[in-house]
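Archive entry. Fields below.
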Amino acid sequence: MTAYRTHLLVCTGTGCVSCGSFDVRRALEEEVRRRGLDREILVVATGCNGFCERGPIVLVQPEGVLYQRLTPDDVPRLVEEHLIKGRPVTSLMYVPPREREPVPLMKDIEFFKHQRLIVLRNRGRIDPERIDDYIAADGYAAAAKALSEMTPEGIIAEISAAGLRGRGGAGYPTGRKWDAARRAPGEPRYIVCNGDEGDPGAFMDRSVLEADPHAVLEGMIIGARAVGASRGFLYIRNEYPLALARIGMALEQARDYGLIGRNILGTGFDLELEVVRGAGAFVSGEETALLASIEGGRAYPRQRPPYPAERGLWGRPTVINNVETWANVPAIIRRGAAWFAGLGTATSKGTKIFSLVGKIANTGLVEVPMGITLREIIFAIGGGIPDGREFKAVQIGGPSGGCIPKPLLDLAVDYESLKAAGSMMGSGGMIVMDETTCMVDIALYFLRFAEEESCGKCAPCRAGTEAMARLLAKITAGDGTAADLARLESLAASVKQGSLCGLGQTAPNPILTTLRYFRDEYEAHVFDKRCPALVCKALIAFSIDPAACVGCLLCKKACPAGAIDGARKKVHTIDQEACIKCGKCLAVCPPKVRAVRKTTAAAGAEGAAAPPPSGEGR
Amino acid sequence: MCPVKSELEALTAKARGRPRALIQVLQDIQDRFHWLPPEALEHVADALGVPLVQVYGVATFYKAFSLAQQGRHVCTVCLGTACHVRGGDAVLEQFERTLGISAGQTTPDGAYKLERVNCLGACALAPLAVIDGRYHGRMTEAKVEALLAEARKGRDG
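PREDICTED_STRUCTURE:
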């Protein structure tokens, strides 16, 4: 093996790839070769670093210098200055929000500093397309230990003692699930990896599959040995082409190395794994629906019990775990249950990956110990709310979760605390909202989602989500009444109780939590016909301040509805009947002029007049 | 595009007599023709030994499948939660206005198909649109027209 003085680790997760990281990698390789440095410097494509806001990202090792938002044009200068002259290029480094000085080293950046990596330990460090990289980072050592030194009962005892719980949302103890499948009568047994990550705003499973696919395979080998399965399936979302490609590649390499297939590592243990592509249905993330989909049918959930551990695929005992859960397993076996149980809270051990998205400075993926507060995640790691706005709420757990308000920012995050707050862990998507987010509109957004994704099998979910969405639409249109609020609450309770599967049972959560914490906003819509966040189109109006308008024609030209009247150097006016409230006039009115006003009806209440700064600065 | 019988044969060959492979076979056909023509559904039912009604049921259940011919350029606007709070709806409306169709429809000349999706998991780029497989992050209404023109030039021209 050649030793290189410097490794350039180029992030090639979906976020960075979409921003052009493959072009950056190609430019780096060419430049390094052109300068005759290709024996000293190695360009490596890695999985997602998590700092998606700042992609494409390149990490220079061993120094640990992080460069961000690179383009191929930056590459010659970076190579010349940093790699030849030894002068790191400060203008390409990360500058924290509200500060001026760049932070050169990855380990000093707040976003990375507070994280604790177990599942994502290899992210940005290894090439996910090379099994040798994974093995060099202790990969498959846990599988070897489990297969040659441990009994199935011993493996289950270790996972149970570690306190690992399902990372897909419900938090069922993994060891107990495995034990149930092991004891259940019936042959053959199956294991399944649930990679149908459908929650909008959550992308940790995609990232794990892209950054460290072998960790998932290794977890499954260990699990298969524990429950006595010789066949397994990885069900992965069709919308994740890169994850599908990488897991397929990993599977082939593992098979070539004798880690999957017959007589694994000479222990006499057999395991065949197969990748199944999802076909686009949110409900397939529900475990019984997912199994129906693997069997080739429509993804309809069914009544539980019996749980899949007793009667799963083709009626046989089946262990189904989420991607992140499987990826936790190798570390527990390698480092021991006591080490893992030493992290986290009384009931929730280890770490959890969250995706931080929405109105937050540092969008990205973070792995943190259970028990960390929301404030630390959102402000210390996430860098707070951009554009000088105020934090309003964080929505956790996708369409099944709920909105958590500002007074609960010091909540220590674990399965139980989130549930008590009316939300749930879910897959770990955190959508941050500021004062320009309307909570009634958000509830409507999630209910429309649930309505659309309801599979239609049971009436409470099929008809209930539709009825709730209709009521919410009525309220956002300004036609709501006090009776509608009461009906909404009673419907939410019925759907929660009466639905067959988790999709319907949790669909009312966005309504219940927003009603609990933001009732005043509902009341403003219903009684005052106002939308305090200035979002709901029926309740807002755009107008032009005659004192400020300079008659530049910009808004008139931009208006798609032809609703603006005016001539050069003459004050413009908006025809309220013709206005479609798209907000384009506000967006194009120059910051120096700021003549366009966005207001909500009644009491002459006025909201934020300034247009949001468009495009984020580098 | 009408599928040639021999091509359907090839796409279903490995799955013959295996009802479990239904979804995967339909995906292969969808990938190849960008829709599921009626004769393909019948062929699959025969080849796998599955009732046609079940093939139709599966084909209409999942979003990956289309029973209507697609436009030559597929524009997908993400309306996941992150895109929603960052103004994805306004971007979709701009696509609808520019193309003169609603989400889920194809332009009469068959050039563009407009779709909305509930999250592509690239939330850092929100709001996001994907045109012919290329991701365009931090979208604004102002970028829509140029991107559509670029797509048309890229493949038609």
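CURATOR_NOTE: The first strand of chain A starts at residue 6 and ends at 11.
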